[in-house]
């Protein structure tokens, strides 16, 4: 069997201009990056702004397991399937981060015969958006430290600097560090920190900005530090905004690529959902909706993270009204939630499936709380038995949701026809009544408790003294009447990654609270979540190589 990268390298791609033409995009509205990638210009946005919006489909999933669910693969396959049944559909996905690519999770280009291409480019440097975000972030840090070095006219307290440096790589050694060492000429010594680029506020700002002017305004509102007399210092105070915007002026434009079956895919932005808001850019999604009749997008990890943030943050700010939610699961993963070890998941185990399927049930119930119709997509494996398939069908029928089995990994769009028809039928016959989960005028504690109780099924949220102190500072600045972005483990509905299925009788522990004022939300840290991942003992990078002809091997 061919690997993902071997399948991708054998793809017969069309020139990017031909892909653009499928969406009615003219050559002067694209900025090509080689033969198979292009930036979509502001000129295109201006032309289509009054077009009617197409239907919006969100693809999410149950809590991820080592067995894998295939959310991105299903998203790509669904787009292929929609086009196969005669619908004009476009993908709107996130860009992969180099951290997972070289770490343990892998990239985000789909898999098997449901991929976006050129796969190597998308998973590596792509069009340079990640690097531009990293550079803009670190320029602000450099200007901050330079300001302190050059006399500190703003009276910045070096013990109360909030903004972190970033790097698009898993590098645990940089989580905590000291800068400015080596004498007076090398700056003022202070404690500093790195986070991965996809967790940075600059990434969130890029993904939520509506245009270049909005981007610039948001950058200026970043809360960087406090002064010695407890006054806030913003990025605009450091006069960094113009230069940061200059670094991001191309990165703000979405990227156009294609699927293996030559259907259009707009890929832009890449915040993680466990430590950030987990959605691709507002600009990419809204543009796709203007260009296609159906837009398929995704939100990271399980619906308790990505989908909740998609609804409560992205849709709220962008004015989006999703028409359908697809929840991806596998029978293998549901058995894992029922206590079956990974090595035994291929054997039939109806009892374990019945025990673990409650995790799917929670995600179904949660999505209905937002008023959006639900379709369950079972990513089908050859080891699924008739008895197990019957359990899943009956479970979904009892909850009045459509379920479709897809085989997109092996069959591409042909394997998604059942799913595509189920989604179209649901949109046509079940009206969406979307609404966010909470009112932003509530206190941060009230909002967090609503998410904890309604989505995680916790008894409530407990705030540590550190979190309480940080929250008081945010409230004193009047920056708390915004959505909350919860940083939490993706593996469990709780903040403990070992608790699978549908845990009961627990609290969510909030360890810290920080405001991302430019992005427009408050970040709530739970459990032991960290914003700079580390590499595993055997990272994926061990197996990646390039031959004498420049052909990459071992990427996946």
Reconstruct the topology from this structure.
Blueprint: H1 4-9, H2 16-22, E1 30-32, E2 38-40, H3 42-48, E3 55-61, H4 71-84, E4 89-93, H5 98-102, E5 110-111, E6 114-117, H6 119-123, H7 129-149, E7 156-161, E8 165-167, E9 177-179, E10 190-192, E11 194-196, H8 201-208, H9 212-220, E12 223-227, E13 232-234, H10 241-248, E14 255-259, E15 264-267, H11 282-291, E16 294-298, H12 303-318, E17 324-329, H13 331-337, H14 350-356, H15 358-368, E18 374-379, H16 386-398, E19 402-406, H17 408-411, H18 417-429, H19 444-454, E20 460-463, H20 465-476, E21 484-487, E22 507-516, E23 521-526, E24 545-546, E25 552-553
Parallel strand pairs: 3-16, 3-17, 4-15, 4-16, 8-11, 17-18, 18-19, 20-22, 21-23
Antiparallel strand pairs: 1-2, 2-14, 5-6, 6-14, 7-12, 9-10, 12-13, 14-15, 22-23, 24-25
Helix pairs in contact: 4-18, 7-8, 7-10, 9-10, 13-14
Q: How would you sum up this structure, described in words?
A:
The longest helix is centred in the first third of the chain and has 21 residues. It contains 20 helices and 25 strands. The protein is an alpha/beta fold. Strand 14 and strand 15 form a beta hairpin. The strands form six sheets. Strands 1, 2, 3, 4, 5, 6, 14, 15, 16, 17, 18 and 19 form a twelve-stranded mixed beta sheet that branches. A four-stranded mixed beta sheet has the order 20-22-23-21.
């Amino acid at each position: 069997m061919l690997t993902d990268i071997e399948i991708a390298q054998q793809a017969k791609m069309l020139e990017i201009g031909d892909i653009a033409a499928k969406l009615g995009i003219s050559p002067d509205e694209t900025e090509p990056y080689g033969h198979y990638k292009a930036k979509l210009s502001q000129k295109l946005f201006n032309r289509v702004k009054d077009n009617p919006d197409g239907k919006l489909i969100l693809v999410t999933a149950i809590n991820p397991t080592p067995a894998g669910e295939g959310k991105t693969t299903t998203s790509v396959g669904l787009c292929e399937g929609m086009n196969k049944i005669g619908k004009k559909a476009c993908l709107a996905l996130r860009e992969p981060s180099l951290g997972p690519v070289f770490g343990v999770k892998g990239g985000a280009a789909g898999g098997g015969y449901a991929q976006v291409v050129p796969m190597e480019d998308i998973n590596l440097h792509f069009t340079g958006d990640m690097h531009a975000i990293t550079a803009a972030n670190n320029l602000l840090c450099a200007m901050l430290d330079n300001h302190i070095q050059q006399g500190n006219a703003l009276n910045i307290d070096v013990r109360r600097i909030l903004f972190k440096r970033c790097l698009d790589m898993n590098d645990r050694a940089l989580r905590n560090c000291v800068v400015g060492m080596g004498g007076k000429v090398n700056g003022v010594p202070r404690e500093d920190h790195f986070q991965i680029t996809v967790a940075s506020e600059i990434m969130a700002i890029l993904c939520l900005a509506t245009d270049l002017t909005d981007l610039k305004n948001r950058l200026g509102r970043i809360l960087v530090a406090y002064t010695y007399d407890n006054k806030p210092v913003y990025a605009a105070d450091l006069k960094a905004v113009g230069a940061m915007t200059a670094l991001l002026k191309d990165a703000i434009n979405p990227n156009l690529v294609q699927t293996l079956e030559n259907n259009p895919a707009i890929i832009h932005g890449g915040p993680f959902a466990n430590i950030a808001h987990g959605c691709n850019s507002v600009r990419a999604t809204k543009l796709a909706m203007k260009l296609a009749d159906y837009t398929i997008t995704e939100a990271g990890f399980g619906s308790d993270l990505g989908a909740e943030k998609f609804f409560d943050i992205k849709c709220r700010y962008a004015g989006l009204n999703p028409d359908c939610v697809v929840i991806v699961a596998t029978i293998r993963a549901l058995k894992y939630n029922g206590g079956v070890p990974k090595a035994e998941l291929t054997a039939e185990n109806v009892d374990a499936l019945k025990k673990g399927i409650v995790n799917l049930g929670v995600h179904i119930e949660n999505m209905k709380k937002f008023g959006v119709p639900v379709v369950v997509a079972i990513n089908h494996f050859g080891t699924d038995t008739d008895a197990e398939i019957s359990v899943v069908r009956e479970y979904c029928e009892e909850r009045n949701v459509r379920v479709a089995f897809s085989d997109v990994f092996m069959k591409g769009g042909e394997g998604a026809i059942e799913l595509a028809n189920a989604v179209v039928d649901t949109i046509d016959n079940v009206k969406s009544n979307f609404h966010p989960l909470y009112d932003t005028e509530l206190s941060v504690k009230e909002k967090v408790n609503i998410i904890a109780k309604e989505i995680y099924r916790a008894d409530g949220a407990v705030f540590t003294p550190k979190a309480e102190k940080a929250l008081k500072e945010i409230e004193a600045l009047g920056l708390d009447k915004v959505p909350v972005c919860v940083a939490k483990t993706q593996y469990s509905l709780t903040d403990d990654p070992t608790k699978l299925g549908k845990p009961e009788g627990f609290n969510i522990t909030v360890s810290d609270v920080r405001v991302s004022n430019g992005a427009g939300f408050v970040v709530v840290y739970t459990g032991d979540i960290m914003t700079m991942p580390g590499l595993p003992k055997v990272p994926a990078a061990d197996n990646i190589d390039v031959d004498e002809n420049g052909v990459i091997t071992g990427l996946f």
